[in-house]
Specification:
Helices cover 20% and strands 32% of the residues. The protein has 273 residues and is α+β, with helices and mostly antiparallel strands. It has a 6-stranded antiparallel β-sheet with strand order 3-4-5-6-12-7, with no helix packed on it. A 4-stranded antiparallel β-sheet has the order 9-10-8-11.
Length: 273
Amino acid sequence: MSWLILLPIIALVCGSAPVFADDDERYLSCMNSFDCGNITGAGYPFSGSDRPAYCGYPGFELSCINQDPEITIMGSTYKLHGIINQSRTLNVSRTDYTENLCPTLLSNTSLSPNLLSSNSDHGEVSLYYGCPSPIPSGFSAQFTCNINDTDMMGYFVMVNNSVPSMTAPILIPYLTTCNNSVKVPVRQSAIVSILGNPNAMLGAMNQGFDLVWSANDPLCDTCKSSGGQCGYNQTTTAFTCYCADQPRDFDCTESPQDLLKGLYDDGLLWVHQ
């Protein structure tokens, strides 16, 4: 059968939007957004609530606790304050520092380097716990804690991109005698307010810090522009574009071979042998 005879049929099918009796269930599910508290309309790479795991990228699972959106990163829970899709940025803060500077479990902030990275507004606070007395004179950035029924003295010092270390040389030997230390990211812009008012430390930490995500985003842009929904194939561990009829690797554009096969399967095309 001549391919020239098929050209009008291919042109007709390609020129019109495909109509399917039943849309793919995964395609429909991934049209749902994650909505919780101040976060609305969150799509790929996030999953959670009405968005099954296959609608997001591993490591971006969200949960909604009493209308507070949260994300777990490297085993630690963070409150999610905002998502900016244009810059692929999320703003988070540690939930264990919501009310005070004295969490029961002391742990550093660990990120998934392949998924999340800091932006230009990145600063850092180092908190020191169980520091001995007496305290060096002239240093006001101190706090007291009662952790597991143990009273202890603490300090905090700050680091930002423009000033590698704000720790006075006289304090370095003293801080090494503290029992524990924890590093917590903050916005670099918040460090200025902390310097002027050490009591503003907790508020600055609760403002959160920004992280830039990386999760096959160029592939997702291509998928969405073709009318698909972005997702992840947990079997092949690869990006998947969920289309109305079936999942595809990258986008929902059908090849001529796909169109001919569909016409043949529907009985609209026969081949003379």
